[in-house]
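Sample pair:
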Amino acid sequence: MDEASAFSFDMSYCGSPPTLDTLLGRWNLDPLLLLAFAVLAIAVALGLRRATRRQQAGFAGAWLISAVLFISPICALTVALFSARVGHHVVLTMIVAPLLAWALPPAWAKRVPMLPALIVSTAALWLWHAPDFYTAAFGHPAVYWAMQLSLLASFTALWMALLRDPRPLGAGLGALSSAMQMGMLGALLVFAPRALYVPHLGTTMAFGFSPSEDQQLAGLIMWVPANLPLLVLALWRLLEAVLPRREALD
């Protein structure tokens, strides 16, 4: 029996792998998840009554995008395709996390040093995309949520430091460092000699991809679009560091 046929999805949080025919009906209606989103919406609405419009918009956007990621058929698609799960992680870390960082009180950023935030977010990204740890997330819902929440929390902390650090040069270099390591992981996935992720060895053909093609697509997603927000931020903060010097010379 090969690895693909022997792998069990019995404890996979998002269920068994869908096919093209069944995907649109695979909404995640987990009562605990729906309750959590409802409670979070009420708590945030009450807590943000006196917040700025920026904070309200940031939390609303983060809540809405997260709901789409975890409730819609995207959740099921991530069981079948590695590229879908990588895309899921990219949206979580490169869109939801900066929205939360932008919405949280600026004073919180003073408690988040740049270097530890960069180290922890990098470690979380590489850890959860190491084949063994990635596979473990299919073995129990608790491990799945440990993956999702650790990625979200660590990158929210990183984005808080990148956006709020009073030293623009350090923030720009931090964003550039994060982009480089993410691009390196993406390149490793693109050029890996074989498919590395056991859960997807027997699930991708239903969507027209071989496991290797699915992995290469995932690597390209992480290599290019995932890097764009970090590169834009790096450019902004580095220009912010340079322009005052130019004004001083004038």
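The chain has one domain: 11-249.
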